[in-house]
Amino acid sequence: MKMIPSYPHETGSMAEKKIFDRLRNIFNTPNDPSITAFHSLNVTDHPQNRFGEIDFLLWGRPGLFVLEIKGGAVQCRKGVWTFQNRYGVNTHSAKGPFKQAHESLQAIITKLNKKFGSEIISTVPIGYGVIFPDCRWQVD
């Protein structure tokens, strides 16, 4: 797997660094062109925000996949997501990580459709997911 950049961006997220290292170790053939992982990719033309950021975009023969990474404590209660960072500070959002990943994926698909045409892009397997490394996961 080719990693771009070749080292983790300084996002301050230990969870993203863990996943960066795991991806690199799982696909430990650095010259294998079948998959490229882009870390901390900025997204323009985001459907909801002025711009967005994708924690990991995986692109290659298997398809196109967006991964959102959430570390620390994560909860969702009555549709409100709570994220606690490593300093114990909570933030709240009605938009959870699954919606965040989905919106980022839609922005990428829109760009690819403009560049290559929807006929080509519709043949590519596409998906998204969320990874919670080392999280205390609590769902009502």
**Model regions low in confidence, pLDDT < 50 over at least 5 residues:** none
In terms of DSSP E residues, the strand content is: 35-45%
Instruction: Tell me the helix content.
Output: 25-40%
Q: Distance N terminus to C terminus? A: 37 Å
Radius of gyration equals: 16 Å
3D structure, described in words:
The protein is α/β, with parallel strands linked by helices. Helices cover 26% and strands 36% of the residues. The chain has 3 helices and 9 strands. The strands form 2 sheets. The protein has a 5-stranded mixed β-sheet with strand order 1-2-3-4-8, sandwiched between helices. Strands 7-6-5-9 form a 4-stranded mixed β-sheet, with no helix packed on it. The chain is globular and about 45 Å long.
Summarize this structure briefly.
By secondary structure, this protein is an alpha/beta fold. It has helices at 14-26, 97-116, 118-121, and strands spanning 2-4, 35-43, 52-60, 63-69, 73-77, 80-84, 90-93, 126-131, 137-139.
Keywords:
140 residues, alpha/beta, 5-stranded mixed β-sheet, 4-stranded mixed β-sheet, 3 helices, 26% helix, globular
What topology does this entry show?
Layout: E1 2-4, H1 14-26, E2 35-43, E3 52-60, E4 63-69, E5 73-77, E6 80-84, E7 90-93, H2 97-116, H3 118-121, E8 126-131, E9 137-139
Parallel strand pairs: 1-2, 4-8, 5-9
Antiparallel strand pairs: 2-3, 3-4, 5-6, 6-7
